[in-house]
Design a protein that fits this description.
One of its GO terms (molecular function) is protein transmembrane transporter activity. It is a single-pass membrane protein. It is a single chain. The protein is about 90% helix and about 0% strand. The chain is mainly alpha-helical and about 60 residues long.
């Protein structure tokens, strides 16, 4: 149990003293960037899924 406590204390010390955190403005802009790319990527996946679905449906209708 002492090992876990030591690990948690050292982890908090590492986060507090050695990690460079972004500024609030930079964090906001990066969050918007991630959100935009997530939306674009999800729309691209939706488009590919729709096309593949139509192709597979057409194929199975053809072989009936």
């Amino acid at each position: 149990m002492a090992g876990i406590v030591t690990y948690v204390k050292e982890s908090f010390g590492e986060l507090k003293n050695n990690v460079t955190w972004p500024s609030w403005a930079e964090a906001q802009s990066l969050t918007v960037l991630v959100a935009v790319f997530s939306i674009i990527f999800s729309l691209a996946i939706w488009g590919v899924d729709t096309v593949f679905s139509k192709v597979i449906t057409a194929y199975f209708d053809l072989i009936k």
